Predict the 3D structure of the following.
Amino acid sequence: MRIGDDLSDRKKAILRALIDAHIENGEPVGSKYLTSCDIGCSSATIRNEMSELEQMGYLEQPHTSAGRVPSKAGYRFYVDSLMRAYSLTARELETLNNMQKARLSQLDKMIKAAGKLITSMTNYPTVSVKPKFKDQTVNCFKTTFVDSRNFILSMIMSGDVVRSRYIHCKIEVTEEVLNRLCGVLNNNIAHKTSSEITLPLIMKMENDMGVDDALISSVIKNVYDVMSSDDEGELKYEGVDKLLEYPEFSDLGNLKDLLSFMDKKEQIMQLVENDKNDNVSIYIGGEDSSLSANSSIILKTFKVDGKVVGAIGVIGPQRMEYPKVVAMVEYLAKCISSTLEIPDVKELRPPDSDT
Amino acid sequence: MRIGDDLSDRKKAILRALIDAHIENGEPVGSKYLTSCDIGCSSATIRNEMSELEQMGYLEQPHTSAGRVPSKAGYRFYVDSLMRAYSLTARELETLNNMQKARLSQLDKMIKAAGKLITSMTNYPTVSVKPKFKDQTVNCFKTTFVDSRNFILSMIMSGDVVRSRYIHCKIEVTEEVLNRLCGVLNNNIAHKTSSEITLPLIMKMENDMGVDDALISSVIKNVYDVMSSDDEGELKYEGVDKLLEYPEFSDLGNLKDLLSFMDKKEQIMQLVENDKNDNVSIYIGGEDSSLSANSSIILKTFKVDGKVVGAIGVIGPQRMEYPKVVAMVEYLAKCISSTLEIPDVKELRPPDSDT
DNA sequence: TTTAGCACTCGGATAGCCTAAGTGCTAAAA
DNA sequence: TTTTAGCACTTAGGCTATCCGAGTGCTAAA
């Protein structure tokens, strides 16, 4: 049985109205207020229903004579089945469409731009992510002769991402030597993950290179560097200061919890990498482990060939304006995704840089 | 006359002791406490001196019957001439030396590692920066043939940083065509800044390429992209949550000020880029415009060929443990700089990535 | 010139009181 | 059987009054 299936329509209406109201003003909601919400019954009835909803775990009472507040389960049910889709206003759409300007540029810039935009439009902080690529392989090596002491090693990774290194040699090299080097690399370690590059393999390559075996070690170091560039991906926040505008974070404890969580970049990266959802995901703090209670994250990942290559998201108090935020994130994500799908001149960028 | 020259030795001693004490516990310091600080006179005398120091602008009084607190000018004089050098303990040195492990890796990783380290050792947030490169030029173009529809364009920038793009062509290309393309690019736009690449120049290049003129436009787009990659540099914070451990930031107004400042990345980038100081710089909030009052920044930049290529810094309350933080930043900066100076295989990374 | 003593000031903590909001329960009404 | 009205009860938060301590400035003596 799905969560919330045990609720009567009236209970659902009450729950929805209550959560909407709580999101609006952040304070516990009482039965009296709810009578003005088209439920169609008196405060006493609503009290009874609320009391039951509390027993069922959808509501909580901060203290005896306060109104009710949604519990994690309440929020969960709300975002899963209760909330009404928010339809963007013409004005909002226009703003969002300016985003298209960034279309010309690369994924990470678009993600960044999207983050800024959402922050300014929703007043919640955003997070933009480009996750680390694990177990990358080099599909093809290319060398380019510069002069007798220098050459460029270009590595074509999966997804036609190119990573290059400018390599300065201690010995003199010729184009012929470089071509041999290139062949050796392609024959031995193309399509291999870093853990498959073993010492015997390296020895074999040095052997293959003959007198120029000294090249291998300095090249291998660079290859390894590029492959295992676990470069944490990029994770950026925009508008963290907005958090302070929400009363739940004037409690320094709560604030610290959330900031600490945000500081643990690996955790968020994991969240992103494990997000198999094709739609917008909503994480509610305290529901599952890591995320700090009192806060929620709305996240949309971008995938290329089924692999997560980035994400944008919104971090805010648990009483976020889910419908609106979801609508915006969805819209921008669609814009970004569409540019990902039709690469003419390929422009995917690796998560980090080269030399 | 330099700031602080008008102070007697006793005044200096009092000022130093007062600031040390204030940094320690964050509360206004009274005359009575200072008698225990080896000043060698009674609280009454100290009171008189403090009164004068206040008139001179080095101290402030939050209210009539509180102790004194250093003013901006007080802090400025303190960090400039008063504070005692902090000598790192053996234990601290050991921890810092672990840093050397990162030596193998690249600048940005070292910077990041240094940030983490300082945060954990000082309990202040750190900021790590790689500024944007402005007005980059491509010193040399290289093309690498992949197949009849694809090639790699490698651009060697100043500092032997290589940036590559995997380019997919709409027309078929041969190695010969690519070589011509390469020549055209090198003849016309090597060593030029993006603003020097004018439309007539592009027309000329298209002309030079003859029948393959279609290549130019798609290549130019990539070149422009790389050159003007104003990619904001990377600016990352570590341990922002630590701020909350300092009482000055339990005032939400102060906290918001600082967080807003931290959010305005351009401002900090400017600070970094304009930092001509070869030593550690100390910025005291409220002293000069941008930085939020109540906070200070300690910053050390890294330069290559006189150009700022990165920085690490510490952000904290104005009553920071300057001597200790300065010592640590200085030490780590030295470690990082030393690896910057002896590049064997060149490994400088561009501020961002390639395709 | 320094010190001791003393009256004065003011912020912060504590306690007590009151109010408003909201609840649960019971009994009447539909 | 379900809904409503009424009422007693609970409790957080705001308000005021009060007290205490820390620290000052001033004056007079050393």
Notes: Chain A has a mean pLDDT of 85. Chain A has three domains: 9-82, 90-132+232-341, 138-227. Residues 131 and 235 of chain A are 8 Å apart (CA to CA).
